[in-house]
Specification:
The protein has about 280 residues and is mainly α. It is about 65% helix and about 0% strand. The chain has 2 domains: about 55 residues, Homeodomain-like (Arc Repressor Mutant, subunit A), CATH 1.10.10.60; about 140 residues, Tetracycline Repressor, domain 2 (Orthogonal Bundle). The chain starts with 17 loop residues before the first helix and ends with a helix. The relative contact order is 0.07.
Amino acid sequence: MAPGLSGKKNPILSRLDASDAAPYITNPLVINIMPTPRFIADKLCPVRAKRERRKEARPGELLAAALDLFVEKGYAATRSEEVAARAGVSKGTLFLYFPSKEELFKAVVVENLSGRFTEWNAEFEAFEGTSAEMLRYCMRVWWERVGLTQASGLTKLMMSEGGNFPELAEFYRREVVQPGHSLLRRIIQRGIDRGEFVPVDVDHAIYSVIAPMVFLMLWKHSATVCVDESSALDPEKYIAMQAEAVLYGLSARPKALAEPDAPAAAPAREAERAAGAGAAT
C-alpha cells in the first residue's frame, strides 16, 4: 500500500488486500482524462447542456422554417437568409447543415413526404381489411397526415414552379410521385387479385384517386378560389364522397348492376332484338 502524506499507511486501505484495491484508480493522469457522464455535465454546466440540446434540434427547426417559407413564398422567392432568420440562427449556421437552398428544399421534401413511404408501405403489408376499406383508409389518412398540413403546399409549389427548376422537378417525381403511384397501384391491384374490384387499367385508375387529393391541396393553398364562397367545402366529407365514387366504379358487382356495354355493342343488341321480333312473328 502506498503511504499517506504523513508517511503512515492509510488505516482503511491497510485492511484491503491487493486484489481489493486493484479496481480503484488513483493515478491523477487517468482520472483527468476520464469523461464526465452526460447527466452530471448537464447539471454542472446547464448553459452548455442547453446549447448542445439546441444544436441537436436545429436541423428540425431549420426544416420547419424552410417548409413554412417555401409554401408561403414559393421556391424562387425564398432566400436562405430568411430561413435562417426565422429559425433564429445565422446564415452560416444554415449552410453548415444544408450547403445550398436546393439541398434544403430536398431535405424538406424527404422530411415531410418521401420519407414516409416506408411507413405507408408497411401499413399496406399489415392491412387485414378489404381493398375497399384500404382505399378509404388511404384517402382519409392522406388528408390527416399530409393534406391537412403545411406539407401539402409542396405539391402546389411543384406544379407552379417545377418547370423552372427541372432538377427539382425530377427529384420530386422520383421521391414522391413515383412511390405514391406505386402504392396506389398496389392497392387497386390487390382488389383486382382478390375479386373485389373489376379488372381495370390500373395505370389510369390511380388518377381517379389522385385527382381529388390534388384538388384539395389547390383549394387549401389558393385562398379557396377553387370553390364557390356561398357553399363551404368540408374536406373530410369531400374525401369520403370521392372515395365512394371511385369505389362504385371499381367494385365488382352482379352482372345486372354492371355498367352498360360500350357504345360499340349497341348495334349488336339491336340486331338481337330484331331477330327476336322476327322469330316471334
